[in-house]
Amino acid sequence: MPRHVSVSPASNRFPRLKVVLVAGAVAIGAGVGIGVAIAQGSGGGPSKLTARADPGVTFAPGTRRAPEFALRDQTGKQFSLRSLRGRTVILSFIDPVCRNLCPLEAKVLNDTVATLPASSRPVVVAVSVNPWNQTAADLAIDARKWRLVPEWRWALGTYRQLSRVWQSYAIGVQVQTKTLAGVTVHQVAHTEAAYVVDPAGYERSLFIYPYRSEDVVSAVRLASAGRSSSSQR
Q1: Pairing of strands 203-208, 47-49
Q2: Which residues are bridge partners to 123 per DSSP?
Q3: Which of 11, 30, 69, 130 has its CA 20 to 30 A from that of 141?
Q4: In this predicted model, what pLDDT tens digit does every residue of 198-209 receive, in sequence order?
């Protein structure tokens, strides 16, 4: 029997968003999508999303402090969300070995960053939802195949460390662990979501995949325009 590990969203902090995050967009990293339909074009053409793009929800400045965390990036350097104060952050939750929706979400985030002027580009912090498959080799493949922008920063850690972050941001994660021919395989399903955090460390927007880069760009501009709110630290 496969072992199922479930991480429930934080119900106290997100009473209104709980249902949206759990039921809205959950993706299986092993190749099966839930919540977002993928339709193949005739003749084996490129896939396209059939779900309607989420325009995102916005939060008033200074009302929702983004939960703090400290993890390590792809270079092994420890960093915290607080250490990024003064810059707008797009906080996403990505499976490094996903070959289904995560690469599509990564492209949206890449396009978002590339659209903005170099002086106002946000940091993309991608919190891993797969602590078993986040090796240097895995991340190198992502950097190459997903063409990750220089502003992309992985947030890596142990299951215990990462699960605290998932719960803090109401990200649902489910894991199926199987043994195939003596090899342990983890299939990860998770909420595909991205928060825009302003330079003062407050959540300003939330997007559930699928979402469009132009909507995220608008959210980043709105969050960055409130730099004077950094006095609320």
Answers
A1: unpaired
A2: 89
A3: 69
A4: 999 999 999 999
**Domain 6-39+51-232, CATH 3.40.30.10 — does that match?**
yes
Structure tokens at 20: 């949206």
Residues of the chain by 3-state class (helix, strand, coil), percent to 5: 30, 30, 40
Nearest one of 71, 76, 116 to 91, comparing CA atoms: 71
pLDDT at 104: 97
Could you give phi then psi for residue 89, rounded to 5 degrees?
A: -125, 135
How far is Cα 210 from Cα 108, in angstroms, rounded to an integer?
A: 9
Domain residue spans of the chain: 6-39+51-232
Q: Which two tokens stand for residue 17?
A: 């968003």
Interacting residues of 54 by C-beta distance below 8 A, sequence separation 6+: 24, 25, 207, 208, 209, 210, 211, 215
Please name the residue that has the structure tokens 């199987």: 178
Q: What is the residue whose two structure tokens read 């959950």? A: 26
> How far apart are the two ends of the chain, measured CA to CA in Å?
49
Least Cα distance to 84 among 136, 121, 46, 49 occurs for 121
Q: How much is the pLDDT for 186?
A: 86
Cβ burial, residue 31 (10 Å; 0-12/13-18/19+):
exposed
Between CA 191 and CA 153, with CA 219 as vertex, the angle to 5 degrees is 60
DSSP-assigned beta bridge partners for residue 174? 6, 189
